[in-house]
From TrEMBL:
Domain of life: Eukaryota
Residues that, per the record, bind ATP: K16, F62, R90, T96, R110, N120
Region feature (Disordered): 100-126
The protein's name in its UniProt record: Nucleoside diphosphate kinase homolog 7
Subcellular location: Cytoplasm, Cytoskeleton, Cilium axoneme
Signal sequence, renumbered to the chain: none
Protein family according to the UniProt entry: Belongs to the NDK family.
Keyword terms of this UniProt record: ATP-binding, Cell projection, Cytoplasm, Cytoskeleton, Hydrolase, Kinase, Nucleotide-binding, Nucleus, Transferase
Active site, renumbered: H123
Part of the full-length chain shown: 84 to 239 of 375
Amino acid sequence: ANKLGSRKEKTLAMIKPDATDKMGTIIQLIYDAGLTVTKAKMTALSRKEAMDFYAEHQSKSFFNNLVQVVTSGPVVAMEILGDEAVTAWRRLLGPTDSSVARNEAPDSVRANFGTDGTKNAGHGSDSLASAARELEFFFPSTGHGPSNTAKYSDCT
Ligand code: RTP
Ligand code: MG
């Protein structure tokens, strides 16, 4: 807990290529939910990078389609900070399948901006352990440039 007594988490949010044209709306949804964007990067993933990022799904039937979707254009990766950020961001995303999302969570990101079960607008880490791995993937602590540790150290 920080000095205010709240327990904040960090998670990795990724806006997939099919929804980058809605990045403004999606980022607004994040802030409206009381979460904060503490890092952001727009970047294109190579096929190898996409396969590494989704390594846990390599044996799934949808893997090739998933890699295709996520390399079809740039993505926006963000570190999201807030109370129960892992769960909160996945709640904003809605169910994995965009059609299911339209039925069960009509206000969600996937309901509004996703197309189907794989082309579904966004990604969210599924646990704190996944978040740590995925944040390091997009924002390596060994990278060059400002380390981004000073500004938020009081909040985390
Ligand atoms: P994500 O990892 O992207 O936040 O989504 P998730 O936890 O809700 O879903 P997961 O099971 O981890 O699957 C990762 C991504 O693979 C694609 N997918 N396609 N049956 C299908 O066609 C299918 N199932 C999953 C989606 O792009 C999903 O977000
Ligand atoms: Mg997942």
